[in-house]
Amino acid sequence: MPPAVELDRVSKSFRVRRPRRPGVGARVRDLLRPRTEAVTAIDRLSFSIAPGERVAFIGPNGAGKSTTLKVLAGILHPDAGEVRVLGLVPSHERRRLAFQIGTVFGQRSQLWYQLPPRDTFELLGRVYDIDRLEHRRRLDALTSVFEIGALVDTPVRQLSLGERMRCELVASLLHAPRLLFLDEPTIGLDVSAKAAIRELLRTGSEREGVTLLLTSHDTGDMERVCTRVIVIHHGRLLWDGAIADLRRGYLKTKRITLWTEAERLDLALPGVRVLSSGSYRTEIEIALEITPLGQVVDAAVRQAAIRDMVIEDAPLDEVIRTLYASAEPRQVTS
Amino acid sequence: MTGSNRLAFARALVATNLKAALALRGAFVLQVAFMALNNFTFFVFWWVLMRRVTTLRGWRLADVQLLFGLVAVSIGATVTVAGGVRHLGRLIEEGDLDTLLTQPRSVLVYALGMRSQPSGLGDLLSGLIFIAASGEVAWSALPLLLVALLASAVVFLACGIAFFSLSFWLGNVETLARQLWEFLITFSLYPEPLFGGVLRFVLFTVLPAGFVAYLPVRVVQAPSVPLVGLLVLGASAYLGFAVLMFERGLRRYASGSRFSTFG
Amino acid sequence: MAKYAAFSRVAVARAGRERGDLYGRVAFFAVILGVFSSLWRAAAEAGLCVAIEPRALVWYLAVTEWIVLSAPQVHLDIQEAIRAGDVVYRLGRPVSYVGAEVAAAFGVLAVRLPLLGLTACVCAFAFTGWIPPARAFAMAVPFGLVAAALLAALHVWIGLLAFWLHDVSPVYWVCQKLMFVLGGLMLPLAIYPGVIQRIAGYTPFPALLAGPASFMLANGGATPAALARDLAIWCGVTAVGLGWTFRRAATELTINGG
């Protein structure tokens, strides 16, 4: 099956106006001959996504995430390289593509604020040329899956953020898109709402075979919804692979929390960093390449009896932070 | 995409738009009432003046009423149906066109039909009253009046699109565009004979109060084939130009050259 | 006093920075004077009251618009502050809230009045080729300044209504339109039918606009003494009204818990 998304050495740069200097003369000169510099937003980016995959697309602010997403959606035209989404070239076939993709922006709403979601759903039916009967059927199905039956006739301004988000998802899925772009879908939501949305996304995608491309700063989104992660920084691909591999492969560290009979532990071993120690609880981080796990545990046991122990991989946030730090800065030319 | 689908979409868009405007019932009624009040108050000036002078360079009170009414209906129709035009600049500036670009419809139509200004209905209603009160329009002249109104509204809308589309190239033009928009309205509300020379040239080209107000009034009062033809042609030309300008700007938007930040 | 001056200074700085808005006002002023100079000439041709010259009418309009365009729409700021709840914090400070708002409004006036005054003179002269006698300025300018201050204070009063009304814009609009008509914005009151003139007499509007502007007319409508008296009365009414309204509002707040 052809890939859902295909990027081949795609580049995009923007002309940014260099900040003005004070003074009338400089300002006039700026108007006549603006001094600009070209900033590379994405640089020869290549990856492909198979249909049905759920991919997290992450990177720090200014990494080029939104730019990439916009290129894929046909909002921006790339300067170089080839893009194919669902077999179509976004910049040339925007409208055809639009029928098959859906978007959810965490910070921008598709729903009309003053009206109940039902009215937006109606309008979207006309926007996407959905057959009346099909529209009714689909709406009923989505309403029960996303449990928005009680919300559909309440004005959007009266809905909580979590409720609104569920309606947004319904709105984006109404026309049965094959690919869904999500930009910060759980931003601002409380813990239970986040969990609900993530669950819905995962099962929804599995059930309907919808390809998901999700950008988020929340690693929870990444871990609970997606199977694969693409890391981008300074416009370049940093990492592309399964999430489990990311954690295991990149940072070869483990974190151990020990509850012991001794108030503190003294573990001065190479490759061992004590994060906290006291009140009968010690937290340490082990660089596995330097000291094997077993050796550290042995050393601890020799010092005091162990009541409880938790061994974890390094938190994903840290893994990613390390990744970001290793990237080269982006190109800037005048 | 067939023509009937486009119409269905446009109809649905307008309907949703009006529904949203009506959603806040109280504010809606107030805005309608106050725009109507605004227009009547403004007209008091003319009523007082015309009691003293009877005619002003050939214009009687009835002529001013017709002018007022026509322009009010034109403005009212535009901001009710295509109220998004006044927010076009902000949409462009804040990147809100993105959401529209991901949907399979004309970005311009969607952007225009996204908002509605309730005050527009106040303009519409008061405008119709003015036209009726002027006594200048016989029932037989109704189709002509409709043509004049449609042309006037089209030119007005086209100007709005053009002024606010400057944002594609110049960034934040909110104040400038709004200023030009308001000048257009101001000049449209005063009788044509007041303006001469260079100003009249400007008013029939760059700031086309001539096509929004003066020509439509002439068409209603003294119709002739060339006059109607000129009006219709003019309206089409302005609309064509405005749409072209928007599309060009949109291409620029999509090439990202107006971005000053990226993410 | 110094505390209030500080509020004014902040307002001055802000108004100076909002240059787009200022240029907009200047441009609009120029256009409106141009349109009206044309209109009054046409009216004169048509035989409007011989006693009033068209060029004097243009200067008349220059003064009324000078006052109207300079007055800041503080009612919107106050409404915002009340809606956002900021007001509660302001009440705690050792400064009269109303005093502070009025001082801020005066700050804006301090920026707009000179600039728009200059615009008025330049444009009116450009369109009429005539400058009124010095006496006209000597009367119009001081009275105009007082009128502008009073108008700003009235805007603050309207803003205070936001404690009770969800949206004070309609009140502002109605008052503004009434002011345009009853205050003789575009036409000296003398031209209006007697009935309207009598009604206007019971409102502050003639004192706000027509009064100061009438000095530009050859046989100006108001005498300085009468206008001074009217302005003083309305200033007094406004001051008392502001205080009373705010005290009521503050009690509302404390009763309802903000």
What attributes characterize this protein structure?
heterotrimer, B: 263 residues, mainly alpha, globular, disordered C terminus, C: 258 residues, 11 helices
Q: What secondary-structure arrangement, pairings included, does this model have?
A:
The complex is a heterotrimer of chains A (334), B (263) and C (258).
Chain A: E1 5-17, H1 24-32, E2 36-49, E3 54-58, H2 65-73, E4 80-85, H3 94-98, E5 101-105, H4 117-127, H5 132-146, H6 161-173, E6 179-183, H7 191-208, E7 211-215, H8 219-225, E8 228-233, E9 236-242, H9 243-250, E10 253-260, E11 272-278, E12 281-287, H10 293-303, E13 306-313, H11 316-326, E14 332-333
Parallel strand pairs in A: 3-7, 3-8, 5-6, 6-7
Antiparallel strand pairs in A: 1-2, 1-4, 2-14, 8-9, 10-12, 10-13, 11-12
Helix pairs in contact in A: 5-6
Chain B: H1 3-23, H2 25-53, H3 61-81, H4 88-93, H5 97-101, H6 107-113, H7 119-134, H8 142-165, H9 167-170, H10 174-188, H11 197-203, H12 209-221, H13 225-254
Chain C: H1 2-17, H2 19-45, H3 54-70, H4 74-84, H5 86-92, H6 97-128, H7 134-160, H8 169-182, H9 194-201, H10 205-213, H11 224-256
Helix pairs in contact in C: 1-6, 2-3, 2-6, 3-6, 3-7, 3-10, 4-7, 6-7, 7-10, 7-11, 8-10, 10-11
Explain how this protein is built.
The complex is a heterotrimer of chains A (334), B (263) and C (258). Chain A is an alpha/beta fold and 334 residues long. Helices cover 35% and strands 29% of the residues of chain A. Chain A has two domains: 5-248, 3-Layer(aba) Sandwich (Rossmann fold); 252-313, 2-Layer Sandwich (Alpha-Beta Plaits). Chain A contains eleven helices and 14 strands. In chain A, strand 6 (179-183), helix 7 and strand 7 form a beta-alpha-beta unit. In chain A, helix 5 packs antiparallel against helix 6 (161-173). Chain A is globular. Chain A starts with a strand and ends with a strand. The mean pLDDT of chain A is 86. Chain B has helices at 3-23, 25-53, 61-81, 88-93, 97-101, 107-113, 119-134, 142-165, 167-170, 174-188, 197-203, 209-221, 225-254. In chain B, helix 2 runs parallel beside helix 7 and helix 3 (61-81) crosses helix 8. The longest helix of chain B has 30 residues, at 225-254. The model of chain B is unreliable at 259-263 (pLDDT under 50). Chain C has one domain (2-256). Chain C has helices at residues 2-17, 19-45, 54-70, 74-84, 86-92, 97-128, 134-160, 169-182, 194-201, 205-213, 224-256. Chain C is mostly helical and 258 residues long. Chain C is built from eleven helices and no strands. The model of chain C has no long low-confidence stretch (mean pLDDT 85). The chains are: A alpha/beta (334), B mainly alpha (263), C mainly alpha (258). The interface between A and B is large, with 46 and 29 residues.
